[in-house]
Amino acid sequence: MALPPPDPGSTALVTGASSGIGEQLARQLSARGHHVTLVARRRDRLEALAAELGNATAQAADLAHEAQRDELFAAVDRTVEILVNCAGFGVYEPFVESDRARELEQVRLLVEAVVDLTHRYLPGMAQRGRGAVINLSSTAGFQPLPYNAGYAAAKSHVLLLSEGLSGELAGTGVTVTAVCPGPVPTEFQQTSGAKFGERLPKVVHASAERVARDALNAADRGKRVVIPGGPQVRAAFAANRFFPTAFSLPVTKRLMKT
After folding, report:
1. Alpha-carbon separation of residue 40 from 79, 144, 150, 176 (angstroms)
2. Residue 159: beta bridge partners?
């Protein structure tokens, strides 16, 4: 089942589109001929990207807030046939020392916003018998991560939600794909203060452009889950999902400790 073809009355709504993986997904969807609705907090970046792409609309919103999700839903005047949930940040520090408001904001953006936007747009896709949801999870969601506990838990939620919905929608013409990157050199790493990627060999890193390309190719094939970046990345991370926690927890604690 391929992604829905471009249609003059439809759009691909991409959150987190102002930089990194989200920006690359927006660029590649635009290059495929789709109108793209660009969503992020930084209006100036969105407007610059929309002007560059030509077939795009900028909609600034902080998706951690329900009222702004309501405003976004009201503002989009095209049929959303592709939804990309990519907005996010991570808290990389001991939970007992972290800021409570920041931890809650992380849950609202990574979990609540994904559930909300998916629930707003997925029923219409199912009724039309065509559509695709692409959710950015992470290899962080394959196992519990000390010092990154809330982020890993949120990404695990996105992964399991996506897989469950994929099973529900099998044969309907609508697909849901969870994209699970390993380390990706983007602004996300800088703004979140994530240093674990520096401790991993460069061979398991993937560029934002590669992640976006692999994500769209996986959605084109109707895949339920994809680890982007090639066989070396899959070899490094795929088994983590099934490794006993009693063995993985000490390893991840050493890796993630700041």
Report:
1. 19, 28, 22, 22
2. none
Residue 21 domain flag: yes
CA distances from 48 to 18, 22, 23, 236 (A): 9, 15, 12, 37
The Cβ of residue 135 has, within 10 Å, a number of other Cβ atoms equal to: 24
pLDDT digits (tens, 9 = 90+) for 95-138: 999 999 999 999 999 999 999 999 999 999 999 999 999 999 99
Q: pTM (2 decimals)?
A: 0.92
Q: Sign of the CA dihedral 62, 65, 69, 71? A: negative
Task: Report the alpha-carbon distance of residue 88 to residue 106 in Å, rounded.
Answer: 8
Task: Tell me the catalytic residues.
Answer: 151
Is residue 2 assigned to a domain?
A: no
Question: Cα(59)–Cα(119) distance, rounded to whole angstroms?
Answer: 19
Give the count of domains, the chain.
Answer: 1
